[in-house]
Write a structure and sequence with these properties.
With 136 residues, the protein is of the alpha+beta class. The protein has a single domain, classed as Cytidine Deaminase, domain 2. Helix content is 29%, strand content 24%. The protein contains 4 helices and 5 strands; from the N terminus they run αββαβαββα. Strands 2-1-3-4-5 form a 5-stranded mixed beta sheet. A hairpin with a 4-residue loop joins strand 1 and strand 2. The longest helix is centred in the first third of the chain and has 15 residues. It is globular. The model has no long low-confidence stretch (mean pLDDT 95).
Length: 136
C-alpha cells in the first residue's frame, strides 16, 4: 500500500468516527475497510442501552462490506477515543476474530491517531493463535 492509500484510509476512518453513536461511553471509534476492488467501506461503533446489542466500528464496516457483496479485503484503518485521537485504538478481541473469518494472517491493520501518526500491524500479530475454519 502506498503512503497516500494509507492516509486516505485513515481519513475515511476519522470521518466514520464522527458518525459514532456512543451516548453511554462517549468512546467513538471509526473504521475504514479497503476492499480488494478498491472500495472503502466505513463503519462506526453503535451503542445500545442493553450493551450486548452494541457493535464495534470494525464489525460494522465488515458487515456493510459483506452486505454490498465484498468478501476480499486489503487493509483496515481504526481510530478512536473519548476525546480527540490521543491514543491508539486497537480492535477488540471479537473484531479480531471477525477479521480472521475474512482476512489472511498477514492482513494489515492500521492503528492511527492521525494520517501522520500511525502504525501497521498484521492480524496474526494482534491475534497470534486465532480460531478459523481451518480448525473445524
Amino acid at each position: 500500500m502506498s503512503d497516500n492509500n494509507i492516509k486516505e484510509l485513515i481519513n475515511a476512518a476519522i470521518k466514520a468516527r464522527k458518525n459514532a453513536y456512543t451516548p453511554y461511553s462517549d468512546f467513538k471509534v471509526g473504521a475504514a475497510l479497503l476492499t480488494a476492488d478498491g472500495d472503502i467501506i466505513r463503519g462506526c461503533n453503535v451503542e445500545n442501552a442493553a450493551y450486548s446489542p452494541s457493535i464495534c466500528a470494525e464489525r460494522t464496516a465488515i458487515s456493510a462490506a459483506i452486505a454490498c457483496g465484498h468478501k476480499n479485503f486489503t487493509a483496515i484503518a481504526v481510530v478512536g477515543g473519548k476525546d480527540e485521537l490521543a491514543d491508539n485504538c486497537y480492535p477488540c478481541g471479537v473484531c479480531r476474530q471477525t477479521l480472521t473469518e475474512f482476512c489472511p494472517p498477514d492482513f494489515p491493520i492500521i492503528i492511527a491517531q492521525s494520517p501522520e501518526n500511525y502504525k501497521i500491524m498484521t492480524l496474526s500479530e494482534l491475534l497470534p493463535h486465532s480460531f478459523s475454519s481451518e480448525n473445524l
